[in-house]
Amino acid sequence: MSVHPLIESLKGKLVVSVQAYPGEPLRTPEHMAAMSRACELGGAAAIRCQGLSDIAAIKGRVEIPVIGLWKDGHEGVYITPTLRHARACVAAGADIVAIDATDRPRPDGKSLEDTVRPLQEEGVLLMADCMTIEDIRRAVELGFDLVSTTLSHNKPAIETTLDEGPDLPLLRQATSEFPGLPIICEGHVHTPAEARSAIDAGAWAVVVGTAITHPTSLTSWFKAALDE
């Protein structure tokens, strides 16, 4: 598998996820764009963001690549769930589009393959948000440009013994099965040491979100420590 130059530029680097939840004070495209520019100045190699307005605003403020997605809903497949959502992300300016790559039913009834093939024919770079090793295998077979552990902490509790850190066991399994392919570590990376451990475990790049760009969570962590 050949690696696109844009994907190659992310190797060994930090990608920052810049998102805010509905109803929060920072949930405006202007705030997200300013946060993204601040992360770029700090050394981020790319920005991951959600929503068409945020993608467009961030693309206008940073020079690094933008990984765009569109969250529609709150359950099941809601990360860029359909071909329409993915094409809209491209139109908004996303350099890479992130898509839920699990085998769960999609809202339009199409298969994952039916969703990604037209995009690949259009030259769109795609990131697979995966939950399990089976998802990762499927994404590799379908030719995704990036494959990520994004959804691994969403597995039912009976299927995982993960603590609050990144899913290094899944990462190691994936990088062992697919050496040299762009396997991304995303999810529950809360410290620089955890980010380093992901690279040491074979990650192509590491995505960090909450621990950098979500001040409400950061504040609550400090408060909880003082309340103990």
Automatic annotation (TrEMBL):
<protein>
    <recommendedName>
        <fullName>Putative N-acetylmannosamine-6-phosphate 2-epimerase</fullName>
        <ecNumber>5.1.3.9</ecNumber>
    </recommendedName>
</protein>
<comment type="function">
    <text>Converts N-acetylmannosamine-6-phosphate (ManNAc-6-P) to N-acetylglucosamine-6-phosphate (GlcNAc-6-P).</text>
</comment>
<dbReference type="InterPro" id="IPR007260">
    <property type="entry name" value="NanE"/>
</dbReference>
<dbReference type="GO" id="GO:0006053">
    <property type="term" value="P:N-acetylmannosamine catabolic process"/>
</dbReference>
<dbReference type="GO" id="GO:0005975">
    <property type="term" value="P:carbohydrate metabolic process"/>
</dbReference>
<dbReference type="GO" id="GO:0019262">
    <property type="term" value="P:N-acetylneuraminate catabolic process"/>
</dbReference>
<dbReference type="InterPro" id="IPR011060">
    <property type="entry name" value="RibuloseP-bd_barrel"/>
</dbReference>
<comment type="similarity">
    <text>Belongs to the NanE family.</text>
</comment>
<dbReference type="GO" id="GO:0047465">
    <property type="term" value="F:N-acylglucosamine-6-phosphate 2-epimerase activity"/>
</dbReference>
<dbReference type="InterPro" id="IPR013785">
    <property type="entry name" value="Aldolase_TIM"/>
</dbReference>
<keyword id="KW-0119">Carbohydrate metabolism</keyword>
<dbReference type="GO" id="GO:0005829">
    <property type="term" value="C:cytosol"/>
</dbReference>
<keyword id="KW-0413">Isomerase</keyword>
<dbReference type="Pfam" id="PF04131">
    <property type="entry name" value="NanE"/>
</dbReference>
<comment type="pathway">
    <text>Amino-sugar metabolism; N-acetylneuraminate degradation; D-fructose 6-phosphate from N-acetylneuraminate: step 3/5.</text>
</comment>
